[in-house]
UniProtKB/TrEMBL annotation, chain A:
<comment type="similarity">
    <text>Belongs to the GPN-loop GTPase family.</text>
</comment>
<keyword id="KW-0342">GTP-binding</keyword>
<protein>
    <submittedName>
        <fullName>ATP/GTP-binding protein</fullName>
    </submittedName>
</protein>
<dbReference type="Pfam" id="PF03029">
    <property type="entry name" value="ATP_bind_1"/>
</dbReference>
<dbReference type="GO" id="GO:0005525">
    <property type="term" value="F:GTP binding"/>
</dbReference>
<dbReference type="InterPro" id="IPR052705">
    <property type="entry name" value="Gliding_Motility_GTPase"/>
</dbReference>
<keyword id="KW-0547">Nucleotide-binding</keyword>
<dbReference type="InterPro" id="IPR027417">
    <property type="entry name" value="P-loop_NTPase"/>
</dbReference>
<dbReference type="GO" id="GO:0016787">
    <property type="term" value="F:hydrolase activity"/>
</dbReference>
TrEMBL record, chain B:
<dbReference type="InterPro" id="IPR007995">
    <property type="entry name" value="DUF742"/>
</dbReference>
<dbReference type="InterPro" id="IPR036388">
    <property type="entry name" value="WH-like_DNA-bd_sf"/>
</dbReference>
<feature type="compositionally biased region" description="Basic residues">
    <location>
        <begin position="1"/>
        <end position="11"/>
    </location>
</feature>
<feature type="region of interest" description="Disordered">
    <location>
        <begin position="1"/>
        <end position="33"/>
    </location>
</feature>
<protein>
    <submittedName>
        <fullName>DUF742 domain-containing protein</fullName>
    </submittedName>
</protein>
<dbReference type="InterPro" id="IPR036390">
    <property type="entry name" value="WH_DNA-bd_sf"/>
</dbReference>
<dbReference type="Pfam" id="PF05331">
    <property type="entry name" value="DUF742"/>
</dbReference>
Length: 206, 136
């Protein structure tokens, strides 16, 4: 640790600075219901200490929303955790752990539209909490894979049963993971990237 | 397996590209206070900045810089994403975007646009990402 004077604003640690050659970034979104392990996954694969970006919105900013009662006029802060993985000296990958409720998504311009793809984290004890987010991704044409975060007391289902319950076509990967483990989280990201690659290959042939 | 059953949805026409911006603008007009605190020109155009647009300072903070601008310029002596700037400065994404719009106009920072998903994603790009992940 270097001793900086107290008036110095916090910034990246020396080892967290990107090289000047960093030219462009890509992003992947990790999305899922409350408490499903998004923050844990971002933290386990990130090369930097995970960070949080916030956005503030008012009642009016979420006007289309139905379950946000019109009684309160107070500002709501929505936080999103993110991490980073350097791919090459030129290319950086950012991972965003995003709240599952679509009403927040507009706050971050093009978060989903520009993402390479998404990981939908599910908990088999509460499978239905991820239904809506999958539908939203389908509507927006955002490619995704499903990662089943294996909590110890969660029921285990054969992939075929999960696929049927989630009504997912055969080509969409469904994988088990333990988001607390770096290698496991990394493998989920690799599964997504391979899937995206197969889509790109198909697109190129068509 | 006794689980609830989902129904697949199909892709709909994408939102017009400025739909999010329109919603954001609407939110801002309802909350002018915040903009007058730090946001600068509330009616001005915002630069199209993504969470992962990389920002690099082109100059040291000029004497005329506000404390927020100076802090931002010092942070991005090396490239840093808008998201990271927001996190380190503890400012909302929209406020950082407004700050950056002014700094870009003044030529004090450079913005390196992200690579976004395309209908047919670049296979070379995805292969680079795969190799990068495999090294982890
Ligand atoms: N046993 C077990 N616990 C886990 C696993 N993943 C996450 N947890 C725990 O579950 C809790 C919720 O995980 P988070 O990563 O905070 O989940 P989140 O999706 O970010 O939650 P919200 O942001 O609150 O919606 C934490 O206490 C984690 O330590 C897992 O794979 N196994
Ligand atoms: Mg979280």
């Amino acid at each position: 640790m270097d001793c900086k004077s107290s008036d110095t604003l916090p910034g990246p640690r020396t080892e967290d600075r990107l090289p000047h050659t960093a030219e462009a970034a890509v992003k992947i979104v990790i999305v899922g219901g409350f408490g499903v392990g998004k923050t844990t996954m971002v933290g386990s694969v990130s090369e930097i200490r995970p960070l949080t970006t916030e956005e503030t919105m008012t009642q009016a900013g979420i006007g289309v929303d139905d379950d946000y009662g019109s009684a309160s006029k107070t500002a709501t802060t929505v936080a999103m955790d993110f991490g980073r993985i350097s791919i090459t000296d030129e290319l950086v990958l950012y991972l965003f752990g995003t709240p599952g409720q679509e009403r927040f998504w507009f706050l971050w311009n093009g978060l989903f539209e520009g993402a390479l793809g998404a990981v939908v984290l599910v908990d088999t004890r509460r499978l239905e909490v991820s239904f809506d987010v999958m539908g939203r991704l389908e509507e927006r044409g955002v490619p995704f894979v499903v990662a089943v975060n294996s909590f110890p007391d969660a029921p285990r289902h054969p992939v075929a049963d999960l696929r049927a319950a989630l009504d997912l076509p055969e080509e969409i990967p469904i994988v088990d993971c333990d988001v607390r483990r770096r290698a496991s989280s990394r493998d989920v990201l690799l599964t997504l990237t391979r899937f995206l690659h197969s889509l790109a290959a198909k697109g190129a042939l068509a | 397996m006794t689980a609830p059953q989902r129904r697949r949805r199909t892709s709909r026409q994408p939102d017009p590209p400025d739909a999010g911006e329109a919603a954001r603008k609407e939110g801002e007009t309802q909350n002018p206070e915040r903009l007058f605190v730090i946001g600068g020109d509330a009616d001005g155009e915002r630069a199209a900045l993504d969470l992962v647009t990389l920002i690099v300072a082109r100059a040291d903070p000029p004497a005329s810089a506000t404390p927020e601008q100076a802090a931002l310029l010092r942070l991005c002596a090396a490239p840093l994403s808008v998201a990271e700037l927001s996190a380190y400065l503890r400012l909302p994404f929209s406020v950082v975007t407004a700050l950056l719009t002014d700094l870009l106009a003044a030529g004090l920072v450079q913005a390196r646009a992200p690579i976004v998903r395309q209908t047919v994603a670049d296979r070379n790009l995805l292969e680079a990402v795969m190799h990068g992940l495999q090294k982890l």
